[in-house]
Amino acid sequence: MATxxxxxxxxxxxxxxxxxxxxxxxxxxxxxxxxxxxxxxxYSFANATTISFNxxxxxxxxxxIYRVTATDSAQATFFAGSAIRAQDLNDNxxxxxxxxxxxxxxRIDSTGGTMSGDLNMGGNKITNVASPTGGxxxxxxxxxxxxxxxxxxxGNVGFTGNITVAGNITGAGxxxxxxxxxFGSTATxxxxxxxxxxxxxxxxxxxxxxxxxxVTGMIRFNTDITQFEGYNGSSWSSIxxxxxxxxxxxxxxxxxxxxxxxxxxxxxxxxxxxxxITINSGVTVTVPSGQSWVIV
Length: 296
Prior knowledge:
It is a single chain. Helices cover 9% and strands 26% of the residues. By secondary structure, it is mainly β. It has three domains: 5-106, no CATH class; 141-189, no CATH class; 205-295, no CATH class. The protein has a four-stranded antiparallel β-sheet with strand order 1-7-3-4, with no helix packed on it. A hairpin with a 4-residue loop joins strand 15 (219-222) and strand 16 (227-231).
């Protein structure tokens, strides 16, 4: 195959780059950096086969020096009764030869081949692509649709790996993950959340002072009182736990001995606490009319 281009990699110091292909006119020689054609003001010809850049291409920049033979008109034109020179005939033949070589080197073979640069489709489609089998194969729409991924959040989303999201996820469908799901912000689901593993669900924890702006139904673990708590619409209160004991015993109901935060008994509820109990200075326990708090 005839040579119609030479490629190099910039090193931030070299400015002279030679090329090995013949050409008819200097204007037929083109230069690109990282795929972008350069204006002729960015370089010059140091000699017939060497390009000199005004500024050395940076480290890692892909340099391409290539030929594009002009074909808008014949290199030489003959007139009736004029002399035919061998040089003119040769130039016309070389113009055809060079243009053919460039076409052969840069064409896409319908039987298969390897691209040497990016392919810009200019907004057009690549159609009738086979389903992917390799890690770098093009993914078809039909293949992608098998994952039932709907960015609008109205369908189901299924993943077999891990998910890490820095923002919010809001959806009305089902989120199915067989790996780990990590959310850096809020995840909102319009339906149920089902966990089928045999592990555990880790919920937020923190002190009294770190309680979030409360919304009815919130649950968390309070590290001040070492208990799970939930917000019932008006206040935070302990949940879960139940009786404990050695082995399988469920005998002892334990409570803290110090009230550190204002608390109002839930409407129409009584309370019982094992004493003694200390209510910290500035803290108020409110027992609504008709309700009782018994300390035993």
